[in-house]
Amino acid sequence: MPPLMPAKLNYRDPATWVATWGGSGLLKPAPGTWGTLGGLPFGILFLVLGGPTVLALAAIALFPVGLWATRRVEAMTGDHDSGFIVVDEVVGIWITLLFAAATPLSVMLAFGLFRAFDALKPWPVSHFDKNVPGAMGVMLDDVAAGLMAGLCLLGLRYVGIA
Known about the structure:
GO terms for molecular function: phosphatidylglycerophosphatase activity. Helix content is 70%, strand content 0%.
């Protein structure tokens, strides 16, 4: 079993805390799920208080910050796309929430759909995961998963399910 706290991480570097989304990516098992859960309350808050525009602006603002943090952590550890890097999951769930209604069912479906697309990596998620190098690939596959989950959620909303 891998160590809970990777030794190569510099816990004094703010990039570590951004990349692990406040340490949620260090939780086991399934750090991606924990990271998504860690980002979910902030996304809901942006959606409820500011609407989709504020949530979209937050996701757009977090993307370059996530790139910076991911690059720093990858340089720090020498590993690509380590499981504890979850800021990409946060951007992805925020994108999915753009298509959600502010209801518990819609938010739960957003979470489940995003986790499914992120874990199963259908095309084009797999394309970004395999073909885009470095931090950009780490971030873009979750953007694609978020968009695909969001479109599915939009379809469910259209037929009255979500």
